[in-house]
């Protein structure tokens, strides 16, 4: 049970510091679980210790712009936003093509517009997730300091 939990935590830790951070987590869990009565008590204590993604963020020694626990959501939101931007601008080619404008000119116009807008989309999404990351890291630091 503990090994499965630690494997899940390890998925969220940076590879270059994974062993060191897992050692610290294993020590803390050892102290927490050493006097557990049974498996149900261990499971309850692990649940109180935190979800693996939250534990990984709590043990991170340095701040990230986008913390590991938010990275999957950040990637999905960024991909969906890029796809939506491309689809919206691609749909604008159709009316222009109906007016017998050359498709190559429309494609160049689409590419120019998308390349102008994508940095703005990327920046806004990154700033929103960086703000969320700051809040999450502050809360995890407060919880870590309280223990």
For the terminal residues, how far apart are their CA atoms? Answer: 23 Å
Report the portion of residues in β strands. Answer: under 5%
Number of helical segments?
A: 7
The ordered string of helix (H) and strand (E) elements is: HHHHHHH
- The percent of residues in helical segments reads over 70%
Radius of gyration: 23 Å
Number of strands: 0
Task: Give the uncertain stretches in residue-range form.
Answer: none
Query: Shape from CA axes?
Result: elongated
The biggest beta sheet is recorded as:
none
Structural class: mainly alpha
- What kind of oligomer do you see? single chain
Q: Give the total of domains.
A: 2
Global mean pLDDT? 83
Give a verbal description of the structure.
The protein is mostly helical and 147 residues long. The protein has 2 domains: 60 residues, no CATH class; 76 residues, no CATH class. Helices cover 78% and strands 0% of the residues. It has 7 helices and no strands. Helix 1 packs across helix 4 and helix 5 runs antiparallel to helix 7. Keywords: Membrane, Transmembrane, Transmembrane helix. This is Transmembrane protein.
